[in-house]
Design brief:
This protein has about 170 residues and is mainly alpha-helical. It folds into 2 domains: about 140 residues, MFS general substrate transporter like domains (Growth Hormone, Chain: A, Up-down Bundle), CATH 1.20.1250; about 30 residues, no CATH class. Helices cover about 80% and strands about 0% of the residues. The chain is built from 8 helices and no strands. Helix 2 packs antiparallel against helix 3 and helix 2 runs antiparallel to helix 4. The longest helix is centred in the middle third of the chain and has 30 residues. It is elongated and about 55 Å long. GO terms for molecular function: D-glucose transmembrane transporter activity. It is a multi-pass membrane protein. It is found in: Membrane. It comes from Chunga burmeisteri.
Length: about 170
C-alpha cells in the first residue's frame, strides 16, 4: 500500500487509471482468445491464466484504488461523505450484480463471456479519457474551476472565490 501511494503521486491518478483500464481490456481480450482457442491448442490454458493474473494486476494498479482518490479530490468537504457513500454503493452494487449474474452470462455466452467485459472496459476507458481530469497536485478549487470552464464559456469562479465574495457582501 505504501509503495502504491508513491506510485500514484509520481505517475498521476488519471494516467494510472487509464493504464489500468487498458491493461484490463487487453487481458479480457486475451482471456477470450484463450478460451475460444482452448479446444484447438492446449497451451491456451496458460494464456488464459496469465491473462487472469494480468487482469488482477492492472485492476490493482488503476481501477481498484484510483477512483477512491478521485472521488475524494473532486468534492469539497461538505458533499464529500455523500459522494463517497454513493461511490461505495455503486461499487458494491455492481460487484453484487456481476457476482450473481456471471454464471448465467457465462452459460449463455460460452467462451465469449469476457468479450462483454472488454466492451465495457472500452467504454470506461473512453469515458475516463475524455471526462476524468488529472487531479495530481491540484487543489479542490483548481479541479472545480476546470470543470466549470468546461461547462461555462464565461470566467468561472472557484468555490473559494465565491465564499470570499459572499463574505465581502
Amino acid at each position: 500500500v505504501f509503495r502504491q501511494v508513491f506510485l500514484v503521486e509520481k505517475a498521476g491518478r488519471r494516467s494510472l487509471f487509464l493504464a489500468g483500464l487498458m491493461g484490463m481490456l487487453i487481458s479480457a481480450v486475451a482471456m477470450t482468445v484463450g478460451l475460444v482457442l482452448l479446444s484447438q491448442f492446449a497451451w491456451m490454458s496458460y494464456v488464459s491464466m496469465v491473462a487472469i493474473f494480468l487482469f488482477v494486476i492492472f485492476f490493482e494498479v488503476g481501477p481498484g484504488p484510483i477512483p477512491w482518490f478521485i472521488v475524494a479530490e473532486l468534492f469539497s468537504q461538505g458533499p464529500r461523505p455523500t459522494a463517497i457513500a454513493v461511490a461505495s454503493f455503486c461499487n458494491w452494487a455492481c460487484n453484487f450484480i456481476v457476482g450473481m449474474c456471471f454464471q448465467y452470462i457465462a452459460d449463455l455466452c460460452g467462451p465469449y463471456v469476457f468479450a462483454i467485459f472488454a466492451a465495457l472496459l472500452l467504454v470506461f476507458f473512453l469515458f475516463a479519457h475524455f471526462k476524468v481530469p488529472e487531479t495530481k497536485g491540484k487543489s479542490f478549487e483548481e479541479i472545480a474551476a476546470a470543470f466549470r470552464r468546461k461547462k461555462l464559456p464565461a470566467k468561472a469562479m472557484t468555490e473559494l472565490e465565491e465564499l470570499q465574495g459572499s463574505k465581502e457582501a
